[in-house]
């Protein structure tokens, strides 16, 4: 077997994730969103108090889940913030996603 084809799944996923991070641009603030605090206020779910943990606008759009975890964000907060960071990058309008509560 060719050694290059024997890459483990871990090596492959790490290199793909690294390449994906480099390709993502940091969008400029626009409209009512002027800084990290106003971004977190716009997306709702009581995310605004986390503004003191995120150092800058650029950091918010370049951090991954591991970096957010080291800042003390719980999994739901990390997932929600990364979701809205990507949507903002794509140019979507910010709005609160209502929490449906308990699943039935």
UniProtKB/TrEMBL annotation:
One annotated Gene Ontology cellular component of this protein: mitochondrion
This protein's record includes keyword Mitochondrion: yes
Pfam families noted in UniProt: SAM_Ribosomal_mS41
Domain Small ribosomal subunit protein mS41 SAM: 36-91
Record's subcellular location: Mitochondrion
The keyword Mitochondrion appears for this protein: yes
Domain of life: Eukaryota
Keywords: Mitochondrion
Family the UniProt entry places it in: Belongs to the mitochondrion-specific ribosomal protein mS41 family.
Name of the featured protein: Small ribosomal subunit protein mS41
The species this protein was found in: Allomyces macrogynus (strain ATCC 38327)
